[in-house]
């Protein structure tokens, strides 16, 4: 109800009823009387009053539908843009965006947007909050939220006529009919309130201005360290100078005789395929042998040879071929590329069954496998010591096979050739 | 006295052709209902029972202790808890899932039962919704302090930052952030919207300027206008419709935290329905645990009747049986899958290091609720209180069993370990109850704990014979 404009001493009429039924009957009469600006007030929703008053369906569901759709679009755009465009998350080669994992967040944001809109649109359509209402000046109106049912006609209604409206309400069985007094209170807030608001609005710009100012300016000072985490610690770092030790270094030298992991070469012949210094001296004195170990320091048993065959197939055969002729699948591929003008600078793998290789001592083959030779990389890090020796023994078997004569085949088997 | 007795009979009647009265007492009118409910809010000095002061003093001291622990945690680190390799989730996540589960009852009662037109919900929905919001507060606390570096917790949200990084939207943990925060927001709005007409009632009954002013601001000038009620009821229906899939989605997403990972015992498709059933189960048990003492302390037995409690017990029985079915089905699938890791995990749950937790869970969640098949137990207030407390305990153990047994026995035996909680684990969990009960006691004291306008509608229906 707005302020009085038609020279009446009140803003409208208020009728009180004991029961919802009485209110409903009265509402039908007021509706049929053609009034537009009137309302009923009840402590709980009275069902059937919408028809009795002629209230049309609210547009609220459509507003909520729009908000829900906005939530769906926001969620999809947010997920697509952040994870596929602004900061692409490439995980195990999966697509940057897919619908299924986007579903939960999309659902939640749809519900969130729709739900928040439901409440605020309902309040907005109801013109709430409205803390100042002339009806509150009628003392008995307090029971509208407790146990009485009210009907109010606004004097601004085009049909409103003081005496006929009073007569209409009196004929509806109202337990009381009362005028809603004009409270004549100011419609604009007092000046100090406006001033305070302007001052407050001005003050809020100060922190924002400081933030924007520092963001846009540059500084040669280090950034503020709000949270230290573990950035500043009392421990010394490698290479730092400290007064604690004589040599002034924070780093301590290892204890004498310390051996790094994997560097314990307790036996030179076993770990490196090279004779120990003292053995070397003795060997040179006896015969003109090289410094390499002549024979592998492990027994050439059947399981050892099978192990060697397996490791050879894994590590050596790709280049040297299954039989060691240097015709592995890598070499074949290189050869075919050369035929079409590719693989420039290719050095073919060695045929390991030639007499030159076959005449090398076991230790030299072991050394070649361990440290590599010419183009071949070292395999010491990949293949264990025992396995390298097993491969050497298997190589011997291959060389023997490649250079075999008919005499090597047992008499009983020769017929099968 | 005899008429009271008749009503008692009528209220708990099982004959489907007779509609039992939901609100008891011949003399209950709109005004007497206001006196009974709003009177609690108004009579701060004269009507507040001694028990309330004792309880709020206790919960406030526990809450203070929680504040101290959280401060100590922030400056020291999560090492004060028992979380150690490989059980990095430990109690904080167990407590998180426990509280989120409890939070499911309120919105279920206010939304799903509203859509199903279950009028009995009106006596307990306000209470249950409040419990939901306070439980979500407790739930939100745990992941927040469990991240270790609380000052970067904003990384969880899609906020533009100086690193130009964005969260990974394919992580179930991020889905959780959205699900739980949406649930908290919608539950709060739903609860507040329901409160508006009742706050107006308090405003209009107020005898002091201060009370009138405060409740006037929060009731936003509500006058009970029918034009307003029309939009209000439509909004309530829409919110109920939105909250129904939401309440089912929240624990589904929480279960994704587990189910989307590869760990045996977690990586199962039964998790979403199993978690949702467990959440409703635990939430209803918590509502009963709280409302039984509150209705007698504040003398609301004629509004929250034995019939209400009995219906709640039936829901507990139904959801408890679903949870029992899920436990059995997990074992069946572990065997049927032929996966040795799955089989080991489930054997280990029942007979391994944590057998005591597993069998506590089974007896509290599966065996005790079955007592509700007996009418005598379902209608006995002390008996149902005991069963409901057992259910609360059992549901905490369920989350403990799922989280800790699977993590402590993962794929590599070399990383196996036995999880030992520290004193801080116990105290943080206790502290969350301090937070919960402080909020809850303030609620019962300063807000109408019964949805007055809705119950008035029920009173009108039952008195006019509709």
Summarize the model shown.
The complex is a heterodimer of chains A (417) and B (466). By secondary structure, chain A is mostly helical.
Structure, explained:
The complex is a heterodimer of chains A (417) and B (466). In chain A, α3 packs antiparallel against α4. Chain A has helices spanning 20-32, 49-53, 60-86, 99-125, 162-170, 191-216, 268-272, 277-286, 302-320, 329-339, 355-358, 362-371, 385-402, and strands at 10-17, 38-41, 149-154, 176-181. Chain A has 2 domains: 1-183, no CATH class; 266-405, Cytochrome Bc1 Complex, Chain D, domain 2 (Orthogonal Bundle), CATH 1.10.760. Chain A is elongated, with a radius of gyration of 49 Å. Chain A starts with 9 loop residues before the first strand and ends in a 15-residue tail after the last helix. By secondary structure, chain A is mainly alpha-helical. Chain A is built from 13 helices and 4 strands. Helix content of chain A is 44%, strand content 6%. In chain A, strands 2-3-1-4 form a 4-stranded antiparallel sheet, with helices on one face. Chain B is an all-alpha fold. Chain B has one domain. Helices cover 71% and strands 0% of the residues of chain B. Chain B has helices at residues 2-11, 30-42, 50-76, 90-102, 104-115, 125-146, 172-205, 209-219, 226-259, 271-297, 306-337, 340-351, 355-367, 375-378, 381-408, 423-446, 452-464. In chain B, α3 (50-76) packs across α16 (423-446). Chain B is globular. Mean pLDDT of chain B is 89; it is low at 1-9. At the A-B interface, α1, β2, α2, α3 and α4 of A face α2, α7, α9 and α17 of B.
Layout of helices and strands:
The complex is a heterodimer of chains A (about 425) and B (about 475).
Chain A: E1 10-17, H1 20-32, E2 38-41, H2 49-53, H3 60-86, H4 99-125, E3 149-154, H5 162-170, E4 176-181, H6 191-216, H7 268-272, H8 277-286, H9 302-320, H10 329-339, H11 355-358, H12 362-371, H13 385-402
Antiparallel strand pairs in A: 1-3, 1-4, 2-3
Chain B: H1 2-11, H2 30-42, H3 50-76, H4 90-102, H5 104-115, H6 125-146, H7 172-205, H8 209-219, H9 226-259, H10 271-297, H11 306-337, H12 340-351, H13 355-367, H14 375-378, H15 381-408, H16 423-446, H17 452-464
Helix pairs in contact in B: 3-16, 4-6, 4-10, 4-15, 5-6, 5-9, 5-10, 6-7, 6-16, 7-8, 7-9, 9-10, 10-11, 10-15, 11-12, 12-13, 13-15
